[in-house]
Amino acid sequence: MMTQCHFSYMEESVPVALEELGTELHQDWRGYLYTCTTALLKEARDRSRGWVNVSCATDTLVDVAYKKVGDGHPLRLWRVSTEVEAPPLEVLQRVLRERHVWDTSLLKWRVVARLDALAEVFQYVCANMAPLAAKDFCVLRSWRTDLPKGACVIVETSVEHPDGPVMLGGVRGIVLASRYLIEPCGSGKSRIMHLSRVDTKGRTPEWYNKSYGHICALYLTRIRTSFKHNADGPESKV
């Protein structure tokens, strides 16, 4: 009967309203984001536990790994990391406010609602390969810059918001989890780690298993090279 109904966990990627986020943990959205941040820092300490390393064919400077999550949803959690020639606060700014620099598929973006100085509802639309429609995402995101040793974090998850309807005729994708940890690693450099689990809609689980992690790695490559270009400056002809 389930097969005839074409039931799939992929169809259960449904965002909750902002006021419902964290209710299963008896928290509000602030408590939910705090829990996500704590879990991210714990994951960073236990880097080898449960992860399967994958070679990145496009960039040997990016480490790629995945972990299966035992919640019934088929999508893996991907982890990508690399070093960037910029301090954590600059990398944080590049991820939060300068997505157009490193995401060439970005079509439109806006802040839907500012919740406090370190949290907002953010919406963005990315182009997709034909014939798939553009991907629209509406996420709650929060960031912290007060962690030990100058580290920064960004936590994002999809929410439903009345002021964030789908833009440009796109399809609403679901960010199940997106977490950035940016740590200083000496000489003005940072190490950025991104954990990502996103249902872009219109793809098979096999596509995610084969391709999605390498797309995450490509984003980090572009973030890294955007700073490298700035650091090198124009070449002088002698």
Automatic annotation (TrEMBL):
Q: Would you say which domain of life the source belongs to? A: Eukaryota
Keyword Phosphoprotein listed: yes
| Keyword Transport among UniProt keywords | no
START domain: residues covered: 40-208
**SUPFAM superfamilies hit by this protein:** Bet v1-like (SSF55961)
Entry keyword set: GTPase activation, Phosphoprotein
Q: Which PANTHER family match?
A: CROSSVEINLESS C, ISOFORM C, RHO-TYPE GTPASE ACTIVATING PROTEIN
This chain belongs to the protein called: START domain-containing protein
